[in-house]
């Protein structure tokens, strides 16, 4: 099995790579994990991970800037049904559109839009930065065996925008920050976390291992 | 619920931890990677490396330390010290830093903060502020920005500066009181609160921690969302776990994952 972590010039892929390598050690047959921007490698991969830091518009532009990458991604994930995990802005890109700096068309795989966090308590700091627990709206294989809820494990967040999903059924988990914010979305073979599993220690490594076993 | 953060800071010089970390039996107490792993295991919420290497030419050593830490430590890492250009930031992020802290370069060129945050996103740009009280006891309190370890005054008002760098895209402020740094007398709570209340981004309180109650006060009275300390942890006076348990006992929401 090969896992492609998409490299489109968006920041720190080293820690994502290392976390996936670490989580893969828990599996019976160790997958091969590679960081790549090559459309052919993306097509050939059995699982696809889209990280992302920075602004929505920049990240989307970065994806479009690699010739053939977007069609390869669409082919693998939308047509081929391969398991997909978006992380942070990589998760936000799943939306129909983003409103950070300027309106930008997203992948549209999870209908909704990405807009600024607006916690009910105006004293809360933005970015939402640090460790928060997550509340599961429904079960999902990627959260199997992971304690969630107020007394559960923590996930590491750092973001100022969030995905507002059109269909509530796509929201698997939320985090409380002056009201619920979207922490985890999933639709079919596509999943995305607003938090950083590669930085979330126990919870993160367990989620990544679940992703590597996931058969949607 | 979002938790408050406890952040140990390691001073790194020429790839080695200055003074070492003496709270557990490490094979090599001067190895930043070993120290980082020990803090990771102890429940630190983030780690901070401050590079105090004099020469910018030796940057490769720091990058190697960051790379080796990120390969084994799955928690957020902030790296600062001598960050002067977009290229410096890019190298650190690619090596595995999650956030980069900028100090002197932000003072000399405020637009660097904007350039950096537009390039990499505000979430990874921390501006480090070293402030010293310049008002007399009978005046309204006023703090000024100092550089070069508190030796060089800049004439910049700390509150105005803090607001300005946040307007330019800083996603977090690391605020150190140069009056309190190394004194163990506690944070400058008036400074911390004045800055935290005047910016919308998270503020990390730093400088002066001597007791665990100081950590509680930094958050409760200083309005910081994270507290940074070095010596009380490095020399084993308190463990990270003790610090977090104490803060939780005082009623602050803390991450106490096993």
From TrEMBL, chain A:
Pathway(s) it belongs to: Amino-acid biosynthesis; L-histidine biosynthesis; L-histidine from 5-phospho-alpha-D-ribose 1-diphosphate: step 5/9
InterPro entries linked to this entry: Class_I_gatase-like, GATASE, Imidazole-glycPsynth_HisH
Highest taxon of source: Bacteria
Keyword DNA damage recorded: no
Stored Pfam families: GATase
One GO term (biological process): L-histidine biosynthetic process
EC number: 4.3.2.10, 3.5.1.2
GO terms for MF: glutaminase activity; imidazoleglycerol-phosphate synthase activity; lyase activity
NCBIfam families for this protein: IMP_synth_hisH (TIGR01855)
HAMAP family xrefs: HisH
Descriptive protein name: Imidazole glycerol phosphate synthase subunit HisH
Protein's gene: hisH
TrEMBL record, chain B:
Compartment(s) where it occurs, according to its Swiss-Prot or TrEMBL record: Cytoplasm
Pathway in which this enzyme or protein is active: Amino-acid biosynthesis; L-histidine biosynthesis; L-histidine from 5-phospho-alpha-D-ribose 1-diphosphate: step 5/9
Any one annotated GO CC term: cytoplasm
CDD domains: HisF
A Gene Ontology biological process term: L-histidine biosynthetic process
Family stated for the protein in its record: Belongs to the HisA/HisF family.
Protein name per its UniProtKB record: Imidazole glycerol phosphate synthase subunit HisF
Upper taxonomic lineage: Bacteria, Pseudomonadati, Pseudomonadota, Alphaproteobacteria, Hyphomicrobiales
